[in-house]
Amino acid sequence: TRVNPFLQDWDTPYGIPPFDKIEYSDYIPAIKAGIEQEDAEIQAIIDNPEEPTFKNVIAAYKNAGRTLSKAGVWSTIKGTNSTPELQDLAQELSPLTSAHNSAVNMNRALFEKVKYVYDHQDKYGLDKEEKSVLEKTYQSFVRSGAMLTDEQQAEMKEIVRKTAEIVDMEDFSYDGYQVVRGEFFAHVYFSISYVSTMNRLSA
Questions:
Q1: Which of 30, 66, 116, 128 has the greatest number of beta carbons closer than 10 A?
Q2: What is the pLDDT of residues 100-127, one digit of tens each?
Q3: How far apart are the first and last CA of the chain?
Q4: Helix, coil or strand: residue 32
Q5: Using CA atoms, how far apart are residues 80 and 89, in angstroms rounded to an integer?
Q6: For every residue of 64-75, which 3-state class applies, written as one string?
Q7: Contacts of 153 (CB under 8 A, 6+ apart)
Q8: Which phi and psi (to 5°) does residue 12 adopt?
């Protein structure tokens, strides 16, 4: 019986995807399985009764979603060597992955643990690389809307969802940089919301 390549370990040089074994029909099942796997891994981080640490929160989070990361190669291929079949798949995959990413980035229970580690980082004896990973992880959550109100998060998720459906996360050039449309509009919205909130607080 054939097994989905994305659901297996890859015995390839440098972990390169075994493109010769991957079929278009593998992507959607792999993405859905990857989302389910990452949701369970994140819930395990949240449910861990131990005090949050770099190892059981940040490292665990960074190591989560391996299947989803592997199956995410569809996005790279679509941007460099797309086909009509992959374009059709993207119509379902883009909104699916976009909604999942928004849910993770705005997961308050997860962010609380990330923030705890960030706020207490001096007691963990982190090295330079670990501090960098912690800083980038924390800032990524903040920029993605983890500190927005429930109403703002709901609106932002809807904007990201609609953007993913309309433009299919297509790359485009903005101010000299290559950016992803869905990510661009999400960050624009967050920036506006953040500035508005800060202005109200300082008024």
A1: 30
A2: 998 999 999 999 999 999 999 999 999 9
A3: 65
A4: helix
A5: 15
A6: CCHHHHHHCHHH
A7: 106, 145
A8: -125, 155
